[in-house]
Write a structure and sequence with these properties.
The protein has 330 residues and is of the alpha/beta class. It contains ten helices and 14 strands. It folds into two domains: 5-176 and 227-255, Rossmann fold (3-Layer(aba) Sandwich); 194-225 and 258-329, UDP-galactose 4-epimerase, domain 1 (Alpha-Beta Complex).
Length: 330
């Protein structure tokens, strides 16, 4: 009997492509659905790439049937917070309404397992800035991006209650770094992720890195975030898949390292590994940026068989710099 397939939506994107790589290397049957609006065709190293949108129910139903899919990993989404504030309906259409259509297709096709790419933006600004966010921390998104993801979480939870499909929701914190093999990485144009931008400044692709806010109640005055290497995040998805296949119940898990680094610490790491200081400009705080956002990670370690391999800021930064050099060579 042929092995069932895994549908990866958004599998040509930054995080999705790293997951597809690990799935393929493990011998899983993979099919990727991506509209290539931000994804990269060359990043899909395994499986068949089908160009299309998750909102296209006829296409999704055909894929689920033709490829004998029993698991869906859903990454396809718009992810730029400022854009979501300027154009909220774009985010509710693509992140929430399209997910609703995808879930209906999954219900009709009796999909057994669903793994959802969510975000710490669902928490908004935690009231207690000193404590890590745990899965029971109140959710209060402060932008349409976070709300669009939280609404999708609620739909997925309600559907799992109504049918036999089980799910794992992974709330990502700050994803960074690139594949250690150098085959894929963060290729998004006009990226806003701090380590990606800092690496671009180091290699002359941008003129400067802007630090927004130097007067936060943190050790050095700059914002503190929990950075997770993309390959560790990808491996968490495989662990979540194994958990569901082994009869695990639907659950929600934070995905981070449980510790934070400040913006200045990131800049220091870039300077040290690059060998010279990058150009930094300081600006006032941006509205809506919490002083500190760190993942409480007890639950993921209690639930999944997951052991991070790249839990080191310098490793994350080094992989980012190496990938930017490789992009310059292309």
């Amino acid at each position: 009997m042929a092995k069932s397939s895994i549908l990866v939506t958004g599998g040509a994107g930054y995080i999705g492509s790293h997951v597809v790589k690990l799935l393929g290397e493990r011998g899983e049957r993979v099919v990727v659905l991506d509209d290539l609006s931000t994804g990269n065709r060359d990043a899909v190293l395994f499986g068949e790439l089908i160009e299309g949108n998750t909102a296209d129910t006829a296409l999704v139903e055909k894929i689920l049937q033709d490829h004998e899919v029993d698991t869906v990993m859903h990454f396809a989404a718009h992810t730029i917070v400022p854009e979501s504030v300027e154009n909220p309906l774009k985010y509710y259409r693509n992140n929430t309404a399209a997910t609703r259509n995808l879930l209906e297709c999954c219900q009709n096709a009796d999909i057994r397992n669903f793994i959802f790419s969510s975000t710490a933006a669902t928490y908004g600004i935690p009231q207690d800035d000193t404590s890590p966010c745990i899965e029971t921390t109140a959710t209060a998104p402060i932008n349409p991006y976070g709300m669009s993801k939280l609404m999708s979480e609620h739909m997925l939870h309600d559907l799992s209650e109504a049918c036999d499909m089980k799910h794992v929701i992974l709330r990502y914190f700050n994803v960074a770094g690139s594949d250690p093999d150098g085959k894929i990485g963060q290729s998004t144009k006009n990226a806003t992720l701090l380590i990606k931008v800092a690496a671009e400044v180091a290699l002359g692709k941008r003129e400067q890195l802007t630090i927004f806010g130097t007067d936060y109640p943190t050790p050095d005055g700059t914002g503190v975030r929990d950075y997770i290497h993309v390959s560790d995040l990808a491996s968490a998805h495989l662990s979540a898949l194994d958990y569901l296949r082994n009869g695990g119940k639907s659950t929600l898990l934070n995905c981070g390292y449980g510790k934070g680094f400040s913006v200045r610490q990131v800049v220091d790491s870039i300077d040290r590994i690059h060998g010279e200081k990058i150009n930094v400009v300081e600006q006032p705080r941006r509205a809506g940026d919490p002083p500190s956002l760190i993942a409480g990670v007890d639950k993921i370690h209690q639930t999944l068989d997951w052991k991070p391999q790249f839990d080191d800021l310098d490793k994350i930064v080094d992989s980012s710099l190496q990938w930017e050099r490789k992009l310059m060579e292309k």
